[in-house]
Amino acid sequence: MSTVERQSWDVVVVGAGGAGLRAAIEARERGLRTAVVCKSLFGKAHTVMAEGGIAAAMGNVNAGDGWQVHFRDTLRGGKFLNHPRMAELHAREAPDRVWELETWGALFDRTKDGRISQRNFGGHEYPRLAHVGDRTGLELIRTLQQRVVALQQEDFKESGDHEARLKVFQECTVTRVLKEDAADQGSRVAGVFCYERESGRFFAIDAPSVVLATGGIGKSFKVTSNSWEYTGDGHALALLAGAPLVNMEFVQFHPTGMVWPPSVKGILVTESVRGDGGVLRNSEGRRFMFDYIPEVFREQYAKDEAEADRWYTDPDNNRRPPELLPRDEVARAINAEVKAGRGSPHGGVFLDVSTRLPAAEIERRLPSMHHQFKQLADVDITKEPMEVGPTCHYVMGGVDVDPDTAAATGVPGLFAAGEVAGGMHGSNRLGGNSLSDLLVFGRRAGLHAAELAAALTAGERPQADEAQLAAAEAEAVRPFAPPVDEGADAAPENPYAIHQELQQAMNDLVGIIRRESEMTEALTRLAALRRRAERAAVEGHRQYNPGWHLALDLRNMLLVSECVARAARERTESRGGHTRDDHPGMDRAWRRVNLLCRLDDSQGADGGAVRLERRDLPAIRPDLLDLFDDDELAKYLTEEEVKDR
Amino acid sequence: MTDTSTSYDAHLRVWRGDAGSGGLEDFTVQVNEGEVILDVIHRLQATEAPDLAVRWNCKAGKCGSCGAEIDGRPRLMCMTRMSLFAQDATITITPLRTFPVVRDLVTDVGFNYTKAREIPAFVPPEGVAPGEYRMRQEDVERSQEFRKCIECFLCQDVCHVVRDHEENKQAFAGPRFLMRMAELDMHPLDDAEAQGLDRRRAVTEDHGLGYCNITKCCTEVCPESIKITDNALIPMKERAADRSYDPLVWLGNKIRRRRE
Amino acid sequence: MATEAEPRTGPAGRAAIAQRHLRLDRWWLAPAATVVGLLAFVVYATWRAFANADYYAAPYVSPFYSPCLAESCADMRDGPNWPLFGDWWGLSPALIFLALPLGFRLTCYYYRKAYYRSFWASPPACAVAEPHKAYSGETRFPLILNNSHRYFFYAAAVVALILTYDTVLTFRDSDYAWGHMGLGTLLFTVNIALVWAYTLSCHSCRHIMGGKLKSFSKHPIRYRAWTLVSRLNGHHMGLAWASLASLALSDLYVYLLATDAFTDPRLF
Q: Which residues form a coiled coil (chain A) (predicted)?
């Protein structure tokens, strides 16, 4: 019999980043009692690391912008694999979500006439990113955090308890989504099972609505811009709860991460550096991006340096520089230059803004970049170029959701928003579209989670049985006494060592450029690592024990990594964040194919834990198709689709 | 240039323990070129001390989770490079002293979250719809500086008002939240006054601005280089003086109010 | 409120660390230097202010004795003596007016930091425990009086105006003929520039100029003034020390001239 403490809430939000907090605010504003569970301290979520801005077609800088243009850019960036309805909702609602932040106290940089300033970014036709210097994510998180506090203050006035209707369980980790019937994949969600880092205490929250907003999976890769939190928790929780993941083969490698010194390798260098005039050069001093403009983008990008340089001051009569191609293109180009032996001393390329802007302007526009390079690499970016290279940054794939409600497919009561949800960005996300995604779909998830919970009477609420809690507890304490089976390789395993091997395998075998044989090798290694992870052992007790936390996170990272590898091996083409050495071209036949990843306990031939399914992507509505030229559509759509128009 | 033979063994003294008891423990750890304190702490975890508790998150100086005291000075572990110290030096790493310790280098920073709740939130201007907010860059710049704050709470830790006098925690919000008051008071569209909320009076009466004796340690430790004292605390003291200590302003307000 | 100091080891669940601090650098150097610098000035200024002699050597008047408001003041042609206090004042005339610049500096935000740290040890340096059992900051008498800084600022501006007048008078020779300069003129000019810079860079001045405004864009001229003062304000500490030194040097220069220890080199 489990002795785990249980409490009851209406809506549980897992994760307190942009999407989680926006969902929680929405649910609480609808009058529902809302609990937020987050692994870090309140206000420390990974969203703070977003630098560039929030993409929203407000048209403050160029009045030609509108949601249709934003939609079109998003689809181009995602190589037409985006869920069209999600991309549409996102483009339509983003401006309202940004303006709303101002009413909660956000202070964006301003235009001359006092409106929100917008900056250029890769793949966006017009200046579109609302920003605050290069710390937009911090502004977003702080604003939402302060909005949460403001709501708590209201509740305090009413009831004398700040946490009466909105409570943040900080430094708590969810290890399981609870179900009405654990054996039935399609049964309703009943709550979550958590542990508290500080004490190691277990507790369960009963709730009919669970919103996953846990972010990404980057910690499965060695070189990443992601923090330790990004262990794919929400992805794995959804799988384990019976929901499928979609598009997991698409992992975005941000073209510009720091490459030196080794300890900071992967830390992000914001795209704003390029948006504000920074250029990429190889060791021969050549602006190599002009050599890498792909056919589909030839029309929209400058043909030479002169035109590109004119664009910064006269964007209406010139085309944008190729440094501002979507991230996948730039990352591949850098990768190719380094492979061809034209890289910088530490294996990257040069990103130079020092010769492009006056020092004072650089310090004003890119203060945290200036600070970061000065502090961590002894490089003064106002005087010398940075060395940069690709770093694992974002996963386009995620929980398969309904575009309008953010409800996970097949599991009533489960919702997902933000990076953990899939579909919105297709095969590649544009910079700036992530923060707007968080707000648009965070709000939608919170709204529909609240509606679902509100529609149930107390008697109708699903309830998880005690056996599920006991099972979750047993799973969580296993690393303190891992099962001992007789055999040569039955020794207890160090979770840190397993994690390092996983990161190395994913980096080397399922990284930026992929090959079938390597991914098969990766799947073999992942299966072996999963068996070893079952024997991961930790010392000490449950009170703030990082080794234990890692041992528990391994399950999630391994599951998600397998989805990535399996889906990537299946998709025999190159598109967006998925580049196959053995299938270098984009194949229109794959355009409408979504790969879904589901949990599979049957243990396939290679010892896998997940299986793949194919599903058609919904057709793009005719009025949305009309936003594109026929010539352009012909590059992406299958012949039947074009014919049907 | 990619020479990794520059590794050496560093001597660390790390505080380990919990609220009950604890003390400094000695370790010898390998250090590679370009590494920061947090890298070395992670190496300790992966080798000798897997249960060494440390709070961290972004490892890029953006989230403000990994504050600790290094050789007695509050710093972010992720932004403190090992090259600051002599290779044969013994580096002492202790948890933030002002807050209750949870375990090892992790402290309970709940004090700060309590204080955050006591600061009245931004009051949106009545009758201005979302999207209709108009503010000039020069009007938002002062508050923007304060919004650079990553809430690492190093200023709260170093401030002697609470660091040396636990009993002042009740009355004193600390530099971070006095700065938050300044941020809101300088927000060009904050409409607190329309709600009968006088931030300039509240900052002294409710949040203990008078305890600050402007000795500037908050500014010294701020990893974001925010000029907390000069740009937030002293201007707030002056604004509070307008309200509470300036007979001329007081008289002027009285007359103006009567006229209205 | 409790006035008992908490024990150093682990109050209220804090980590048990016995040492008052763990700093290895020479943190005591800055407060020690401040003590030496301020004490040197105080000793010198006290001696000179009470001396009631050797404060005028045509055309220079010591800044410590300007304006000179008693009948007993030395005769300075066109100089800043206005015997408002009549002949009953028996003490040094410096003591009448010196209180104002003294008050300005005593309540100055920089000097407050300096003396709180170095004389009060509250705190002696960052993250070094202070020795006091209780602390109430500037919430009570007398330190609450430091909030009067703005009035001393107005007064200091008046004093600076008078010192400016004195400086203009130094463009004379010892026979009061205009259009001349001596080494002292240079010294006085530098001094008055520093005094003005220090006075205008004051935080109260910054507040009055524009810091108190909620919206800068509605007051462009005050915004410019605030921007200028803010720039100066960044050097407030340096200006505080430089102007303190230049005041003492100007006085010393006059003293040396008045006691005939030195003759003023004339430039033209």
A: none
